[in-house]
Design a protein that fits this description.
With 198 residues, the protein is mostly helical. Helix content is 52%, strand content 9%. A two-stranded antiparallel ribbon has the order 1-2. The model has no long low-confidence stretch (mean pLDDT 92). The structure holds fe (ii) ion (FE2) (2 copies).
């Protein structure tokens, strides 16, 4: 049911990119991902996109590719290091978050046990996922203001509904167009590159 998507190859690509980042703390972060998390096998969501083993890893690489293309297309300069940090780590808070559970489901009139992803664990701290990712990354390395903005606003209009958020989003997307492109890259990957697994 849940097929790993070229996980070993994806992991190698991911690590090669991350190891090219010349920043204090990157080695500790890589070690943390390997030894303390399920990052490389985790799904990207419970049922929306890449809800498969290795889905989160594949998602981050899809977003990386889309983000690079969009920056190129619009002639917006952003260092390769920042592109890597933003794209590969924007959803890092989703590690150690999903669990596979068995549920009963009626299939062709017969009850069967199926595997489903669940995220019923308590979110800690109770903050939006983009901000939880920032906190996790910053516990290992420093982000530039641009990187922080791209990750914080990567849900675009879906990241908040209040008046202040909407106003800030509009200003940030105008003043820092890379934030708009990163939101678009996340959206394109989710809807066009990835799928839902039944
Ligand atoms: Fe996200
Ligand atoms: Fe994402």
């Amino acid at each position: 049911m849940y097929k790993p998507e070229a996980m070993e190859e994806n992991k190698k690509v991911f690590l090669d990119l991350l190891k090219s980042v010349d920043r204090k703390g990157i080695d500790s972060l890589i070690d943390y991902l390997e030894t303390k998390t399920d990052f490389y096998t985790a799904p990207a969501s419970t049922k929306y996109h890449n809800n498969c083993i290795g889905g989160l890893l594949a998602h981050t690489l899809n977003v990386y590719e889309s983000f690079k293309k969009l920056l190129d297309m619009r002639g917006i300069e952003l260092s390769e290091e920042s592109v890597i940090v933003i794209a590969l780590l924007h959803d890092i808070c989703k590690c150690n978050y999903y669990v596979l559970e068995q549920r009963n489901r009626k299939i062709n009139g017969k009850w069967e046990q199926v595997d489903v992803w669940s995220n019923t664990k308590t979110v800690s701290p109770p903050l939006p996922h983009s901000y939880r990712s920032i906190r996790m990354i910053q516990s290992f390395l420093r982000l530039t203001p641009q990187e922080e903005l791209c990750i914080y606003y990567h849900m675009g209009p879906y990241g908040g509904e209040d008046y202040e958020y909407r106003g800030l989003l509009q200003k940030v997307n105008t003043d820092y167009p890379e934030t708009l492109l990163f939101y678009t890259a996340d959206l394109l990957s989710t809807y066009l590159d990835e799928q839902t697994y039944e």
